[in-house]
Amino acid sequence: MREIGLQFPQAQAWWGWALLLVPLLLCACDQQAPSASSIDEVSKEASSGVIVAFGDSLTEGYGFEPERAYPALLEQRLTAKGYNYKVINAGISGETSSGALSRVDWILRLKPDIVVLETGANDGLMGINPVLVEQNLNRIVAKLQQNGVTVILAGMKMLANLGLTYTQEFEAVYPKVAASYGVPLIPFFLEGVATRRALNLADGIHPNARGYEVIADLVLPYVIDTINCEKGEAWFL
């Protein structure tokens, strides 16, 4: 594994210490996806649809109860705006894009209408080839779409310490995948949170409660636009 330092492109690294890789990755080996039956059954009669937040610890809400992570906050915001959607938190700490690919069938068992896909941060921290990340994302998005699921892709950026070539190639993966499959792209999932100590836990890696409020506010308009687009009320340009 390459040593991770403290610098982000054009900003101080908020997850740069090499020792801080541990809390992000520690669950990768032994944590399994919960069975679909362990998640509250979703009644489409009681809601307009199902949104699955599919990702790693940044989605799961590392260090927090599920109700304080962004998926729960997103559901609250949707409800307040009159969108009666159930948002399921399907985040798993330590997961790479390869792990996410292995879970697609399980995600489909949740019968989502929309998936917010956030994965790849752990790949970047481990210096995994961006080509593999792109291949995994392509396969995930393709399979979800083949099963009638609308995908919103969350982009990720990586540490400058991995080298300019690597960081540029890594960041470029997300818009390429989004363009290939015609899906909405959130350019950077941690926009407004990364590098800001006041919005992250003491580890400098994971968002704190205030940070998740920012993330929920960031994701919300993409989800609303997607819902309206499906209803024929809005179109992505």
Any overview of this molecule?
Residues 1-45 have low confidence and may be disordered. This protein starts with 6 loop residues before the first strand and ends in a 7-residue tail after the last helix. Strand 1 and strand 2 form a beta hairpin. It is globular. With 237 residues, it is α/β, with parallel strands linked by helices. The chain is built from nine helices and seven strands, in the order ββαβααβααβααβαβα. A five-stranded parallel beta sheet has the order 4-3-5-6-7, with helices on both faces. It has a two-stranded antiparallel ribbon with strand order 1-2. The chain has helices spanning 21-25, 57-60, 70-80, 97-102, 104-109, 121-125, 130-146, 164-181, 209-230, and strands at 7-8, 11-12, 49-55, 85-91, 114-118, 150-154, 185-186. Helices cover 40% and strands 13% of the residues. The chain has a single domain (48-230), classed as SGNH hydrolase (Rossmann fold, 3-Layer(aba) Sandwich), CATH 3.40.50.
Provide tags for this entry.
single chain, 237 residues, alpha/beta, Rossmann fold, two-stranded antiparallel ribbon, 9 helices, disordered N terminus
